[in-house]
Amino acid sequence: LRSQTLSRKLGVELVEICERGARVWRYIISSLRTVAVIRRKQPDAVIATNPSIVLGYFLLVLRPWLGFKLVSDAHYFGVRAASGRPMLQRLLDVHNWKADLVIVTNESHARLVRSHGARTYVCQDPLPQLPLPAPPVDLEAARSVFLICSFDEDEPYEAAFMAFSSLQDQGYVLFVSGDFTKAKVDVSRFPWVRFLGFLPLHQYYGYLRSCSLVVDLTTMDDCLVCGAYEALAVRKPLVVSNTNALREYFGAAVMLTDNTPAAIRESVQVAYAQRHELARQAENWVASNQDYMNQRIAGLRVEISSLFKQCK
User: Fold this and answer.
1) Is there a contact between 235 and 258 (Cβ–Cβ < 8 Å)?
2) What is the pLDDT of residue 23?
3) Angle between helical axes of 261-273 and 157-167 (0-180°, round to 10)
């Protein structure tokens, strides 16, 4: 989603290469397609998301042969290695140092990447333009809460499930997106939770628009969760983790919570009681964010353009 919104704002072409099958086969075919598209289009610059670190290093190899500047759009795991693995962290640091420019989502990551000698630019996600109209979903409850979840290691989803074990008596119903099977969640432990699985996009947006409240949680301090952008794009009351990055960027537009069952339970109750005020604050945040993002995008254009001036 970030690639789609960022490319649209920058006015550059987005090329998505999506192969299925065994990992080695995917890498081979994706690499061949990457070479083909760069040779055909002959771009001055290639902006590539990281992850994938494999793509990042492949583009570093191609750069001197095909003559483009490499701009790495580093998501959280493009800066900090998953599970803190030292070898992977070293690979990330070297890649970011060798890239011509690294886009990051917050100043903390910018400082870290700069400490390894890389050139950085901070640009958060532009708010997505969600398709209209999204099909409504009958959630069968006035107090319906939608937990946006990928069941990754940074998400305290079990704490959220436990928070709703008592909230269900107050009429709250928790709907959870995402492939819970990959995390081997025993759904029988949480009979009060509605596990939706991985949803097609139109159904996902249907739940997002139809719920009373959105929750998106992370334990990673420098992670700006994607669900927050989507919820604010439709002006939904939103509960997110009380981390530095989320607090500093989204501020008063959201309800902040610690990642414990008791704190999540209280935050959901307060957010629902203040849902109309939170929706108004979300509206105000979106309005002010437009000017901010326009400035960030304009600055990013200048930053990328300067890469070519340096080599003249």
Assistant:
1) no
2) 87
3) 60
Q: In this predicted structure, what is the pLDDT of residue 135? A: 67
Whether the Cβ atoms of residue 304 and residue 242 lie closer than 8 Å to each other: no
pLDDT band at 42 (very low <50, low <70, confident <90, very high): very high
Position 83 scores a pLDDT of: 82
Is the per-residue pLDDT at 310 higher than 70?
no
Q: Are 278 and 238 in contact (CB under 8 A)?
A: yes
H or E element that contains 175: strand 172-177
Say which residue the tokens 């669900």 belong to: 227
The model's pTM = 0.92
For residue 290, how many other CB atoms are within 10 A of its CB?
A: 11
Task: Give the strand pairing for 143-147 and 213-216.
Answer: parallel
Q: Which residues contact 47 (CB under 8 A, 6 or more apart)?
A: 6, 7, 10, 12, 71, 72, 73, 103
